[in-house]
Design goal:
The structure holds 3 protein chains of 3 kinds. By secondary structure, chain A is an alpha/beta fold. Chain A is built from 9 helices and 10 strands. Chain A is globular. Chain A starts with 6 loop residues before the first strand and ends with a helix. Chain B has one domain. Chain B has 11 helices and 2 strands; from the N terminus they run ααααββααααααα. In chain B, strands 1-2 form a two-stranded antiparallel ribbon. Chain B is globular. By secondary structure, chain C is mainly alpha-helical. In chain C, 76% of the residues lie in helices and 1% in strands. In chain C, α3 packs across α9 and α7 crosses α9. Chain C is globular. The chains are: A alpha/beta, B mainly alpha, C mainly alpha. Chains in contact: A-C, B-C. The interface between B and C is large, with 39 and 41 residues.
C-alpha cells in the first residue's frame, strides 16, 4: 500500500556563492515515520533543515508538504501547516518565562489548525511542559536554564506548534548519557501522538534506537537511505565517517 | 542651463577627487562594520574631532593640518581601543549587541557633537594651508589643490590599509576574525585583541580623514550627522568589508554628489548619499559588486 | 485592568489634570508642561518599535516633523482647524512609517536604524527647499482668536489637547503590550528567527509596529506649529527629539508602557529646569551622557530596578 508522503524533497540544491551545500537531494518522510539524518560535520544537514523549514531558499528542486508546494512560503506559514523545527543552539525568548515561551507557538502556530480557545492556552502550555519534564520550571525565566533544560524547552516549543512533522536538530549534542535518554524519551513520546520526526544527531546510539529509517548526507549528497542496520554497514557510509 | 564640455569635465574631476576623500572617510567603517560587525555610527564624530584638532593646531601654530592629523593619529588609535573595550564588555560579551550597541554609539556621537558645540560654538571653522587657494588649470578643467592634496593622501592611506590587511600577519588576522574566530584561537591569537586593534585602526583613519575634511571645506559640529549616510552608503555600495569595494562605492558617490551639486544646486548634495543608501538598501543590499 | 477601563481612567485623569491646572496663573507652566507631554508621546511611541519590537528608530524627528508640517500644509491649503490637522498629521506620519518599514524591514535591524536616520536628513533637506510650507524661513500658523471651551489663552488649549493625546498614546501602548500582537513583538525582539519559526508573521508585525509607532510620533508633532505660532525646519527636526525619544524609554525602562512615561516626565522636567538655568547645549550634553551611562550600566532602566527590587522582596 502506497502511503502518501508527508514531506517530499526532490532534487534540492542550495549554493552559497561558489560553494554547493546541497546537491540534488531527494528525501521523503511518511506520516508518523521516525527518520534519522546523519552525516559528518558540514555535510549539509543543517542546510537541508533550513531549506525545509523555510529559513533558507533553495535554488533548485521542490519541497512538498502534504502534497502542497511550500518552496515560496515564508517559514511562519510552513510551521502553521504543521512543520516544526528545533534549533541546534537553543534560542529561547529570554525575556519570557518558560511557560510564556510555549504560548508564542501555541497562539501563533497551533491555534490556526487546532482552534484552541484563548483561555486554555496556559493550560495547554503547562500540559506540554509536564510531558517534557519542565513543569517545575514553568515560571522561571527561560534565559537562565541549564543546557539540558534549554534543549527540552526547544523541543517543547516545537511541540507547542502542534506539528505533523518535527525536525530535531542535534538536540542531544554535548549531553550526558542520562540526559540523552531524557530527550530520547521525549521524542519517543511524540510517536504516540502520530507526529513524524526527523532526528539529526551525531549520537549514534540514539539514532539507532530511535529511527525506523536512516538517511546519510555527505558533502551535500545523500549517499544512503534505508534500514538502519543496512545503512550503518554500508561501506561508503563507514568511509565517510572514518575517513574524516 | 548650458551644459558645456567644461562644466561636465569639471563635475567629473570634482567627483573623482571627492570620491577619493570619501574612501578615506569610509575605510574605517569598512573595517568596523564590514569586517567586525560593530555598528559604529559614531564614526563621523571622530572625523569631526580630527577636524577640530587639526584646526586648533593649525590656528595656533600654523602647521599643516594633514601633517598634524598623522602625528596625532596614535591618540585616536588609543581612543579607539578604549571605546572598543567598553563596547565589548558592555554589549558584545553579553550578546545583546543590536539595540543597545546602536544606542550606545548614538550616544557617543551625540555627546561628541554637543561637547564640540560647547567648546567651539556653532560657527564654521576653517584652516589655512599653503595650497588652499592654489588651483591648477588644464585647459578649461580645474584641479583645486584643496581637493587634490587630500585626494592623494587619501589614496595613500586607503591603499596602505588594504596592503596592511592583505600582506601582514595581523592584517590577515583581522580579515579572518570575522569568519573564523575559533581558528584564530587555535593559532594562539586572541580574537578579541585582534578586533580591538582593528577597531582602533578604524578610529585612527577617522581622525586623519578629519584633517582632509577641514582642508576641503569649513567644518562645524553638526555636519558629522550628514556623513553617517555617506560612510554607510559607501560601505554598503561597496559590498561591506572590501576595501576595493569601498573605493568603488566612494567614487560612485562622489560623482553622484558632484553631478547633483552642479546641475541641481549644492543644497541637495547631502540628500544624494542618503538617498543612494536608501535605494541600495531597498533594491540591492549586497552592493554594486553583489556578493 | 482591561483596556477599556484603563482608557477611561487615562482619559479621566487627563481631563481632570487639564481642568485643575487651568487654575495655575503662571503661563510658563503650560509651555513647560506642553514640552514634557510632547516627550511622553514621543517616548511612548518610540518604545512600541524600540522596546517592544527591538528595532531602533533614529528618525523620530522626521516623523515628528511630518506631523507638524502636515498641519501647516492643511492650514495653508484649506485653513483647516486643529482637529483636522491632528488626524491628517497622524495618518501621513503613519504612511511614511509604512513606507520606511516596507522598504527596509526585510533587512537587518541595523539597516533599518541607518535608513531611519537617512530619512530624517533627506526629509529635512526636502522641507528646507519647499517654499509652500515656508522652507528655511519658516511658516506662520495663526492661532484662532477665539479659544474654544472658554479658555483664556490658546496655549491652554494646546496643553489640554496634548494631555489627551498623551493619554491616547499610553492607552495604545498598553493595549499592544498586553495583546497577542504584543506577545508576537516580544518574541521578535527576543529572537526574530525563533519567532518566525514559531509561527509569528514577523515582517507583517514589524511593519505594523513601525506604522503605529510613526503615526503616534507624528501625532506628537501636530500641535507643534500652534505652540509658538511659528515653525521652521531646524526646530522641527531638532536633534533633541531623536536623542530624547531613545534616552527616555531607555532610562525609564523599555519593557512596559510605564517606562517611557517615567523617563519622559523625569528627564523632561530635568531638562526644562536645566534649560532655564544653564543652556540648551549643556542640557543636551546631560541627556547624552545619561543615555550612554544607562545603556552600559543599567540597560533595563528605572523600571528594571523596580522589578529587580520586587523580585528580591518576593524571595
Amino acid at each position: 500500500m502506497m502511503v502518501e508522503a508527508l514531506l517530499e524533497v526532490r532534487g534540492v540544491t542550495k549554493r552559497f556563492g561558489g560553494f554547493t551545500a546541497l546537491d540534488g537531494v531527494d528525501f521523503l518522510v511518511r506520516p508518523g515515520e521516525r527518520v534519522g539524518l546523519i552525516g559528518p560535520n558540514g555535510s549539509g544537514k543543517s542546510t537541508l533543515v533550513n531549506c525545509i523549514a523555510g529559513t533558507l531558499k533553495n535554488e533548485e528542486g521542490s519541497i512538498r508538504f502534504e502534497g502542497r508546494d511550500i518552496c515560496g512560503l515564508p517559514a511562519h506559514r510552513r510551521i502553521r501547516m504543521g512543520l516544526a523545527r528545533s534549533f541546534q543552539i537553543p534560542k529561547p525568548f529570554a525575556s519570557m518565562t518558560v511557560l510564556d515561551n510555549l504560548c508564542v507557538p501555541l497562539v501563533y502556530a497551533a491555534r490556526r489548525h487546532e482552534k484552541l480557545p484563548p483561555g486554555r492556552i496556559a493550560e495547554e502550555a503547562l500540559r506540554i511542559l509536564e510531558q517534557v519534564g519542565l513543569a517545575g520550571r514553568a515560571h522561571a525565566m527561560s534565559g537562565g536554564l541549564t543546557q539540558v533544560d534549554m534543549r527540552k524547552l526547544e523541543l517543547a516549543r516545537a511541540m507547542a506548534a502542534k506539528p505533523k512533522l518535527l525536525i530535531s536538530d542535534e538536540a542531544m549534542a554535548g549531553l550526558s548519557a542520562s540526559e540523552v535518554d531524557d530527550v530520547l524519551a521525549l521524542l519517543f513520546g511524540l510517536k504516540e501522538q502520530g507526529v513524524a520526526v526527523i532526528m539529526i544527531e551525531h549520537v549514534m546510539r540514539a539514532v539507532m534506537k530511535f529511527s525506523e529509517r536512516i538517511a546519510v548526507l555527505v558533502a551535500g549528497r545523500k549517499i544512503a537511505d534505508g534500514d538502519p542496520q543496512v545503512v550503518v554497514g554500508n561501506a561508503e557510509v563507514v568511509k565517510a565517517y572514518l575517513g574524516e | 542651463m548650458e551644459v558645456s564640455w567644461a562644466l561636465l569635465a569639471n563635475a567629473v574631476i570634482a567627483g573623482l577627487l571627492l570620491g577619493g576623500f570619501y574612501a578615506a572617510m569610509s575605510v574605517g567603517i569598512s573595517i568596523s562594520f564590514g569586517m567586525l560587525d560593530v555598528v559604529n555610527i559614531a564614526h563621523p564624530a571622530f572625523i569631526i574631532l580630527g577636524s577640530y584638532i587639526a584646526y586648533i593646531v593649525n590656528d595656533r601654530f600654523g602647521f599643516d593640518p594633514i601633517v598634524v592629523s598623522v602625528v596625532v593619529s596614535p591618540l585616536f588609535f588609543l581612543l579607539g581601543m578604549v571605546l572598543y573595550r567598553i563596547y565589548y564588555i558592555s554589549f558584545e560579551r553579553r550578546g545583546q549587541e543590536s539595540l543597545r550597541g546602536l544606542a550606545f554609539f548614538f550616544g557617543i556621537l551625540f555627546i561628541t557633537e554637543v561637547a564640540l558645540v560647547l567648546v567651539f560654538g556653532v560657527d564654521y571653522r576653517m584652516v589655512s594651508t599653503r595650497y588652499g587657494d592654489v588651483t591648477w588649470r588644464a585647459g578649461e578643467v580645474d584641479f583645486p589643490m584643496r581637493l587634490v592634496v587630500p585626494f592623494l593622501v587619501s589614496m595613500v592611506m586607503v591603499i596602505g590599509v588594504q596592503l596592511f590587511l592583505t600582506h601582514t600577519f595581523f592584517g590577515r588576522a583581522v580579515l579572518a576574525v570575522a569568519q573564523d574566530p575559533l581558528a584564530l584561537r587555535l593559532m594562539g591569537v586572541n580574537p578579541v585583541r585582534v578586533k580591538e586593534l582593528a577597531f582602533a585602526l578604524s578610529i585612527a583613519t577617522a581622525g586623519v580623514a578629519g584633517a582632509f575634511l577641514i582642508v576641503i571645506q569649513p567644518v562645524q559640529p553638526a555636519i558629522g550627522r550628514e556623513f553617517i549616510g555617506l560612510v554607510f552608503a559607501v560601505c554598503v555600495l561597496g559590498g561591506m568589508g572590501s576595501i576595493w569595494g569601498t573605493l568603488l562605492g566612494a567614487f560612485v558617490l562622489g560623482l553622484a554628489e558632484s553631478f547633483t551639486s552642479t546641475f541641481f544646486g549644492p543644497s541637495w548634495a547631502p540628500a544624494v548619499s542618503f538617498g543612494l543608501l536608501l535605494a541600495t538598501l531597498a533594491f540591492r543590499p549586497s552592493g554594486l559588486l553583489g556578493r | 485592568m482591561s483596556n477599556k477601563v484603563f482608557a477611561s481612567v487615562a482619559l479621566a485623569v487627563a481631563l481632570a489634570l487639564a481642568s485643575v491646572t487651568q487654575l495655575i496663573p503662571n503661563d510658563y507652566f503650560f509651555t513647560a508642561a506642553y514640552t514634557v507631554l510632547l516627550f511622553v508621546i514621543l517616548a511612548t511611541a518610540w518604545n512600541i518599535l524600540g522596546g517592544y519590537t527591538g528595532y531602533v528608530n533614529f528618525g523620530s524627528a522626521a516623523f515628528f516633523a511630518i506631523g507638524a508640517y502636515t498641519t501647516v500644509f492643511f492650514y495653508n491649503a484649506f485653513k483647516a482647524p486643529l482637529a483636522v490637522g491632528i488626524v491628517a498629521g497622524t495618518l501621513v506620519a503613519g504612511l511614511a512609517g509604512l513606507g520606511l518599514g516596507y522598504l527596509t524591514l526585510r533587512l537587518r535591524g541595523v539597516f533599518f536604524a541607518i535608513a531611519s536616520l537617512a530619512l530624517a536628513v533627506v526629509l529635512f533637506i526636502f522641507v528646507v527647499n519647499w517654499d509652500y510650507v515656508g522652507g528655511a524661513r519658516g511658516a506662520y500658523v495663526l492661532q484662532p482668536r477665539e479659544v474654544p471651551f472658554g479658555l483664556p489663552r490658546y496655549i491652554h488649549l494646546i496643553y489640554a489637547v496634548q494631555l489627551v493625546m498623551a493619554a491616547i498614546a499610553l492607552v495604545v501602548a498598553r493595549a499592544i503590550e498586553h495583546s497577542t500582537l504584543g506577545r508576537g513583538l516580544a518574541a521578535i525582539r527576543d529572537d526574530e528567527l525563533a519567532a518566525e519559526c514559531s509561527g509569528v508573521p514577523t515582517l507583517r508585525l514589524k511593519i505594523f509596529s513601525t506604522m503605529v509607532s510613526c503615526a503616534l510620533m507624528g501625532m506628537a508633532g501636530t500641535t507643534f506649529p500652534y505652540y509658538l505660532s511659528y515653525i521652521e525646519p531646524s526646530s522641527a527636526f531638532s536633534l533633541s527629539y531623536a536623542v530624547n525619544s531613545i534616552a527616555m524609554p531607555l532610562i525609564g525602562g523599555m519593557m512596559s508602557w510605564m517606562g517611557p512615561l517615567i523617563g519622559a516626565v523625569l528627564l523632561g522636567s530635568v531638562q526644562q529646569l536645566v534649560q532655564v538655568t544653564v543652556s540648551s547645549a549643556w542640557n543636551l550634553l546631560i541627556v547624552g551622557v545619561l543615555l550612554v551611562l544607562f545603556v552600559t550600566l543599567a540597560p533595563n532602566g528605572i523600571m528594571g530596578w523596580v522589578d529587580a527590587w520586587r523580585r528580591r522582596k518576593g524571595r
